[in-house]
């Protein structure tokens, strides 16, 4: 049983005009086995929250803390965060030319567990995970994200998550740009890992559609750099019907 605690988190992003405050006091606690949906309008700071927890260098924490089982995540390097059990599926996954999916996954697994997985078992595990995500086996020999379709990039993120077995996964708009079939496959992957390992999930999304497949225990509405409202799954249904208008400051 693990706990990820975000307390009073304030974050600024580095821009050409200097630091710009984005997160303005985020409080959120996720325990193992829980699925938290973070929903909110574009530009509200959802990706900033994900990147800050993952340790992206462009984002500076100006106040607050992030604790994983009481350990200060913000003092850890990006590698240490991954070893501690944090996983981020990015909204816009990056290309890694010259590195195959297969090598990338094995290197990541080795970095996280401190030793290379036994080759035979590893090859089998990768194959199994790819079959479950309905990925062509040839995919393993392609360069990471190079020429991948939107759906392939998202499947690859979930493939990483299945094989790296993190304690907590932050999934940043893993649903965006997916057709219904890909959305189902990706959601099944998340549900499978969640059921098998008690993965805690922060599911960031702009739309309620993915919540038909992945059932959140809690829904948080993110507006203007902080959580404006929280509730259970019924809150997502309300957002589906009403949109985000009532959370936004009317123009004067
Ligand atoms: P969301 O994921 O909710 O759409 P983001 O976290 O991506 O929101 O962005 C929040 C705000 O921070 C936006 O106003 C965005 O323009 C700004 N922002 C994020 N990253 C940068 C950056 N690298 N440079 C300038 N502004 C940024
Ligand atoms: Mg659950
Ligand atoms: Mg975003």
UniProtKB/TrEMBL annotation:
Keywords: ATP-binding, Nucleotide-binding
Residue stretches in coiled coil: none
Pfam families attached to this UniProt entry: ABC_tran
Domain (ABC transporter) ranges: 4-249
Family classification: Belongs to the ABC transporter superfamily. Ycf16 family.
NCBIfam families reported for this sequence: sufC
PANTHER family in UniProt: ABC TRANSPORTER I FAMILY MEMBER 6, CHLOROPLASTIC (PTHR43204)
Name of the protein described by the UniProt record: Fe-S cluster assembly ATP-binding protein
Native organism: Georgenia muralis
């Amino acid at each position: 049983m693990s706990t990820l605690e975000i307390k009073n988190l304030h974050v600024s992003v580095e821009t050409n005009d200097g630091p710009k405050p984005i997160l303005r006091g985020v409080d959120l606690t996720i325990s193992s086995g829980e699925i938290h949906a973070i929903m909110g309008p574009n530009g509200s700071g959802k990706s900033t929250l994900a990147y800050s927890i993952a340790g992206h260098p462009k984002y500076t924490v100006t106040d607050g803390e992030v604790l994983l089982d009481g350990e200060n995540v913000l003092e850890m390097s990006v590698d240490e965060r991954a070893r501690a059990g944090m996983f981020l599926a990015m909204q816009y996954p990056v290309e890694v030319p010259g590195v195959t999916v297969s090598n990338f996954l094995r290197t990541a697994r080795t970095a996280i567990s401190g030793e290379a997985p036994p080759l035979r078992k590893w090859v089998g595990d990768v194959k199994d995970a790819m079959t479950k995500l309905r990925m062509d086996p040839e995919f393993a020999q392609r360069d990471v994200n190079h020429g991948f379709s939107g759906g392939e990039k998202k499947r690859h993120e979930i493939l990483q998550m299945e094989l790296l077995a993190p304690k907590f996964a932050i999934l940043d708009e893993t649903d965006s740009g997916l057709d219904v079939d890909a959305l189902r496959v990706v959601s099944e992957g998340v549900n499978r890992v969640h059921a098998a390992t008690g993965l805690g999930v922060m599911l960031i999304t702009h739309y309620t559609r993915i919540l038909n497949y992945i059932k959140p225990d809690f829904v948080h509405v993110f507006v203007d750099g902080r959580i404006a409202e929280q509730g259970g799954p019924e809150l997502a249904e309300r957002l589906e019907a009403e949109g985000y208008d009532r959370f936004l400051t009317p123009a004067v």
